[in-house]
Specification:
The structure holds 2 protein chains of 2 kinds. By secondary structure, chain A is α/β, with parallel strands linked by helices. Chain A contains 13 helices and 10 strands. Chain A folds into 2 domains: 192 residues, 3-Layer(aba) Sandwich (D-Maltodextrin-Binding Protein, domain 2), CATH 3.40.190.10; 144 residues, D-Maltodextrin-Binding Protein, domain 2 (3-Layer(aba) Sandwich). In chain A, helix 5 runs parallel beside helix 10 and helix 11 packs across helix 12. Chain B has a two-stranded antiparallel ribbon with strand order 1-2. Chain B is mostly helical. In chain B, a hairpin with a 3-residue loop joins strand 1 and strand 2. Chain B has 13 helices and 2 strands. Classes of the chains: A alpha/beta, B mainly alpha.
């Protein structure tokens, strides 16, 4: 017995050793000696994505789901001869950054020519050195049609690297039959609505509104203001006043009757209204936050020339009308209203698609907490602790 | 030559399995372990610095979720066992020609994806739903009572989603029980109850142990049920790992937390198996070898 076992056991040890060495070699080869994931952050000149010659070839666009009608892409292809790969791969800004970051870190865009991200994420990517400046000459026709309300945002005052795809307002979405007197963010903290209130899990949507309700302008807020607002939300969540923090799924809870007043997005309210006329977007007394999802050109984009062709195409009011008529967000293109009126579309009448200056007078853009990445990280961590209940 | 070949044969036969384990278990584990010891942020880059504080910090920060995950998973496992055992017993011994149809009925709901089924429950249990109305009418739920966003809903969701993993192994081991042994017990003047406790149940223990493990382990790491059926006051450790990886982009803490979860589950399982006995899990073979 013992004799027979001696061989294999010794052999096994050797074999395991061999295997371990092999695995170690594999691992070292795979990570190339340096450690894991690394971010950018060095100060370098931002390159310009130059347009060259006639637009042609391939164009890859990464956008959010349900953000375009079915006709625009094929019509663009027919008109320009450019072949478009339109990918609906952005579901969440942070999530998307996590996905593309390793490629961008190597200076590759994964074939993407245009990506669509929210203001603060566009800024963050820009600061990480992942985006290119626009070729001003090539993008001029589109920029000429940009509505003045969106032309000079704080994060990119000259629109050097970002151009809105669609914009929207974050405010109150209310079931008028159940909660007729909700007009301010503070009403969400009214015990009358305990357990029937929801807020968005995107920090930059929810927290600035709560600060505004306490009389603090988000542009001037300090780290402490952010933390106080987060603390106020935490207390409401732990007491059961706030039922849940949601993404787009608050629409389902409003439709089910699980929620009667929520912080939500203007475009969703219009779509919910179709099923339940009692549900509407309410501009909070203290104002709303205005945001845009922006087209940006990543570093390593293979075909910027075609990207500009696309931007100019969707900034033509005739083409934009088709998109606006589909998704009912605040359209960034001048002259779209006239086209929609001619088409006889209800969108032309909507205060949410074409907000007047008075309607958005108190609204602020979505800002980052002040003081650089370390503060942002602390505030984000505090926020995540609230919405996931640590 | 032939002796060399005979000696090598077992390793060659183990080869594919070993390569699989190394590629898909050891290598990812190594990378995760390395990530768990890095420090930094996405903006400044992550660096490998033997940052052991990732482990201690994340345990301090999330101890509440850890505890909650294990309590929910434990309660869900016990309830699932109480439902699954009689069910499996009925199918195995009383199923007759309906056996296969009944088994299919257990499995059929699971042809629909996990996510859709859980979301469906949010509609069934919503505040204005029939279920809540009835429970309020009979006084089980108070006037303002609700089901969604409560621990009850989360645990019920866990039980529902993992029930087949409990039923099938128990059924498989009950099915193998030799009925003549039960008859013999009765011939020796055991009552039906005694025969069950002393013959049927011990023989079905491998199924019970396998079923409880297959339910408890995924339930402890689950985040879908807590996400859809709970609120922040019911969040589990899986929710935190998910948000750390995908929303906060704090990979080192997320990796450290995953490791702690893995270790904690392993510890619970080891204690459980020692307590229940390895024979119970492996069945007769382990018993014979011992």
């Amino acid at each position: 017995m013992t004799m027979r076992e001696a061989g294999p056991v010794g052999g096994l040890r050797k074999l395991l050793f061999g295997v371990a060495t092999f695995a170690a070699a594999l691992v070292i080869a795979a990570c190339g000696g340096d450690g894991g994931i690394e971010g950018g952050g060095e100060e370098t000149e931002v390159p310009v994505a130059e347009a060259e010659g006639q637009p042609s070839g391939q164009l890859k666009i990464a956008n959010w789901p349900f953000y375009i009608d079915r006709k625009t892409v094929p019509e663009f292809e027919r008109e320009t001869g450019i072949k478009v790969t339109y990918v609906e791969e952005v579901n969440d800004n942070n999530d998307f950054l996590a996905k593309v970051q390793p490629q961008l870190e190597r200076g590759e865009s994964g074939g993407r020519d245009i990506m669509i991200v929210t203001d603060w994420m566009a800024k963050r990517m820009y600061d990480l050195g992942y985006l290119q400046h626009f070729d001003e000459e090539a993008v001029a026709p589109a920029k000429e049609n940009l509505v003045p309300q969106l032309a000079n945002p704080a994060f990119d005052p000259e629109r050097q690297y970002s151009l809105p795809w669609q914009s929207g307002m974050t405010g109150l979405v209310v079931n008028k039959a159940e909660a007729p007197d909700v007009t301010s963010i503070n009403d969400l903290f009214d015990p009358k609505y305990k357990g029937k209130v929801e807020m968005l899990n995107e920090m930059r949507d929810t927290v600035p509104l709560v600060m505004m309700a306490d009389g603090i302008r988000p542009e001037e807020a300090t780290e402490e203001d952010w933390m106080n607002a987060i603390e106020k939300i935490r207390e409401a969540a732990e007491s059961g006043q706030i039922r849940k923090f949601t993404g787009n799924d608050y629409t389902r809870d409003l439709a089910n009757g699980d929620a009667v007043a929520v912080i939500g997005w203007s475009g969703d309210a219009v779509q919910l209204q179709a099923d339940n006329p009692n549900i509407e977007f309410v501009m909070p007394d203290e104002g709303c936050t205005l945001w845009s999802d922006n087209m940006v050109i990543p570093i390593g984009a293979p075909n910027p020339t075609a990207a500009y062709e696309w931007m100019n195409y969707v900034y033509d009011p005739e083409n934009q009308a088709q998109i606006a008529n589909y998704n009912y967000y605040f359209t960034p293109v001048k002259g779209t209203k006239e086209v929609l009126e001619r088409m006889g579309s209800d969108a032309a009448e909507s205060e949410l698609v074409f907000p007047t200056e008075e309607f958005t007078a108190n609204c602020s853009t979505q800002d980052e907490p002040p003081g650089g990445p370390e503060v942002v990280r602390r505030v984000e961590q505090a926020w995540q602790d609230v919405i996931t209940g640590a | 030559m032939s002796t060399v070949r005979r000696r090598l044969a077992p390793y060659l036969l183990m080869g594919p399995g070993l390569v699989w384990l190394i590629l898909f278990f050891v290598v990812p584990l190594y990378f995760m372990g390395r990530l768990a010891l890095e420090s930094g942020t996405l903006a400044t880059g992550f660096e490998f610095t033997w940052e052991f504080s990732n482990f201690t910090d994340s345990f301090d920060r999330f101890d509440e979720q850890f505890l909650r995950s294990f309590v929910y998973a434990g309660v869900a496992t016990v309830i699932a066992l109480l439902i699954a055992y009689p069910l499996a017993y009925a199918i195995a011994f009383r199923g007759g020609r309906w056996k296969n149809a009944l088994l299919l009925a257990v499995v059929a709901p699971f042809f629909t994806t996990y996510l859709i089924r859980t979301i469906a429950w949010t509609t069934i249990l919503s505040d204005d739903s029939l279920v809540v109305d009835v429970l309020q009418a009979v006084g089980i739920l108070g006037e303002e009572g609700r089901l969604l966003a409560t621990p009850t809903a989360v645990i019920a969701g866990l039980v529902y989603n993992f029930l087949p993993f409990m039923v099938l192994p128990i059924y498989a081991s009950l099915e193998r029980v030799d009925v003549r042994l039960i008859e013999a017990a009765k011939d020796l003047y055991a009552s039906s109850r005694e025969a069950f406790w002393r013959v049927t149940l011990p023989l079905s223990m491998p199924g019970v142990v396998a079923g409880t493990l297959l339910t408890f382990i995924p339930a402890a790491g689950d985040y879908i049920n807590a996400f859809f059926l709970g609120s922040i006051n019911q969040s589990m450790i899986g929710n935190r790992i998910q948000s750390l990886y995908l929303l906060e982009l704090d990979y080192p803490t997320a990796a450290a937390l995953s490791f702690i979860l893995m270790a904690a589950i392993l510890a619970v399982v080891v204690i459980y198996i020692r307590f229940a006995g390895a024979e119970a899990l492996m069945g007769e073979e382990a018993e014979q070898r011992a």
